[in-house]
Amino acid sequence: LPKNWPAQIPYLTGPLYSPRLTAAHLAAIRTRPLPPAETDTDIVVGTFEIPRGLKPGPSAAVRITPITDPSHPAHGQCGLFAVRDLKPGELVVPYFGEVHVGSGPDAISEGEDEHAASDYDLWLDRDGNVAVDAARAGNEARFINDYRGVPVSSGASSYSSSRPAEGLGGLTRARPNAEFRAVWDPRLCQCRGEMTMAVFVLPAGKKKRQRKDGTQGGIAKGEEVLVSYGKGFWGE
Predict the structure, then answer these.
(1) Rounded to two decimals, what is the model's pTM?
(2) Which CATH number is 22's domain given?
(3) What total of structural domains would you count in the chain?
(4) Are 226 and 179 in contact (CB under 8 A)?
(5) What are phi and psi of 29, to 5 degrees?
(6) Which InterPro entries does the entry mention (predicted)?
(7) How far is Cα 194 from Cα 88, in angstroms, rounded to an integer?
(8) Around 207, how many Cα atoms within 13 Å sit in the side-chain half-sphere?
(9) Residue partners of 33: CB distance under 8 A and separation at least 6
């Protein structure tokens, strides 16, 4: 198990499948999307791929670390920190959890939905009505925090992407340094492949950030990996 992994949470090295998933749900996530046209500049879901040679188990790129800074929104909890420099666009870690029916007529009513109140639930395939929830089981990715309110002192502090903190007497992160992507994982489904979620460093061309040494992007060794949970999570 990774260091600082909670004893009460099962550690996953691959997806855990809900018994409510139908053959149609599984087909949706086991059909690889067509590659984009050469003229298409948008990122197409599923066109990024987990390296086939990536070994399952604890990540060598990040570590789970308790948050001891009282000004951090997740003080008393844990965050995910880089153990080496991570390049722009680089895979950080897959996001594993329970793959389940998202919503609608295929799911039980919202009042009984065991995933409705989860803070770890992400859409895997909206059209296929499939989501993945790491609340009750997962891997290191479940410890990634939102960037809002995180002090610049949380890990490397050499970025100019900061703003005054409200009532904290310091600077907080102005933007995330990583993002969730739905990707194709050729290691899953007995090596036939399957859609999964993963965390990637923001690419250099997306919300570029300037380091004091003049370089752009990436996540420095010792820096906390931070994503945006989205305004919906915060009720904005």
Answers:
(1) 0.83
(2) 2.170.270.10
(3) 1
(4) no
(5) -90, -5
(6) SET_dom_sf (IPR046341)
(7) 25
(8) 17
(9) 44, 45, 46, 47, 184
